[in-house]
Specification:
There is one protein chain. The chain is α/β, with parallel strands linked by helices. Helix content is 42%, strand content 18%. It is built from 16 helices and 17 strands. Strands 1, 2, 3, 4, 5, 8, 11 and 12 form an eight-stranded mixed sheet that branches.
Length: 497
Amino acid sequence: ATPDVGAAGEGDSGSETGTEAGEKEERRFGETRLEDYGGKIVVIPVAMESLIRKTKFEFMSRIIEKADEDGASAIIFDLHTPGGIVWYTEDAMLSDLQNLRVPTYAFVNTKAMSAGSLVSISTDHIYMHPPSMIGASAPVMGSGQDIPKAMYEKVISAILAAAEDVARIKGYDPELVKAFIDLEAEYRAIVPVVDPEGGLSEKVVKEIGPDDLLTLGSAEATQIIDGRPLLAEGTAVSIEDLVEKAGLSGEIVEAKPLGFEAVADWIVKLAPWLLLFGMAGAYMELKAPGFGVPGFISLVCFGLFFFGHKAAGFLAGYEAIGLFLLGIILVIIEFFVFPGLFIFGLAGFLLIFGTLIYAMVDPLDLNWDGKIDLANIGAALTGPALNLVLALIGAGLLIVIALRYLPSSPMMRWMILDSGLDSGTALEVDGVADVGASDEVDLVGRSGVAETDLRPAGAARFGDDRIDVVTTGEFIERGASVRIVEHEGSRVAVERL
């Protein structure tokens, strides 16, 4: 049901008890409960680079859809943009901004050029900041050069069809919108003027001929012609001023990207650097034997590149799961790629435990409001942290009990071989059999050479004997001289000489 907008505007900004919130929205594990836009005025910033990257359009699309589903009071686009990619903008014009129950407003603050003007005419109402400008929407190449004629004809035809159709639906003059886009269009806006003697004359508000593009300032866009404004309904010096003049009610909230959306946007922005280091790392890895730091860096760079371009934006709301999986990956790297380095393992465990706590507390319950309230944060985290501590203690007790009693239980006994072999083959070192299976031969102090990389397990040769060994924690490359420092049963530990 659509919330009572009037009630929200009187200061009750949709506050609700925990029970009501639980009944209103069911969360899946690891999913962040998004802010409820019911009865609120949602402001979507459209800044200098907002219409350039696809990740920004995906963010705006999610906000528009959620605001409409929640029953927001209005959506306001705060525009300060020189333009952007026309195809992404056209998709937003034809799909995201159509068939909405929520009224939409464009606040030209202080420029809505090119693709920005197309976004503006796709809204229900336009307000201009004095001074400001809107228009000049002819498509050009990404480098700023003109499009070749054959391609230009196809592009301009598609854009004009979409823009003129949207303009008719929203109540704007299609001829004016065409003059924004088409270099061949002519446009003339006039106001009839009655002179003191009763004669009728014309005042030209704006006129352009072929090879010109229409651009309107705030005074021109708000000029009243035949009882209606040329384009914009009025001027406003701020969002609050627009809300007052448009008669809107509700709390004003600025839409902000979630974690994965922000990550995706940064990755797309840094894409050239990721490709540079990814290719350089791959080349260096091919020139060196084994797998090392350059290969690891290359995998990380290419992984981030594809993750940011293809996956991150669609995972918005599942930041906890993403960080939990990252923690597991870092722990695996610590044990199998860089054993003994400690940094990856520590970061991994912190992420794992941190996200387990994060999954049990809702970020909205922290009530940040731009300020850090340690008392409030502590109260919100106490319960989840206690649950995690109790779970760890309980899991530890269960593991101890399982190790003590499970091997002798009837359920597990059939899996364990109780009988031994009277005879068999064994490794002989200096003529003594079964090295590593008993303590009869003490290998401590013997020196040899690593036959494989020890990460930390591998094989080393001591004289004529090849023995499976482990290091004391460090990584030892193949061919390095080693010495046995510990021999217990089948475990032979070595260190670098």
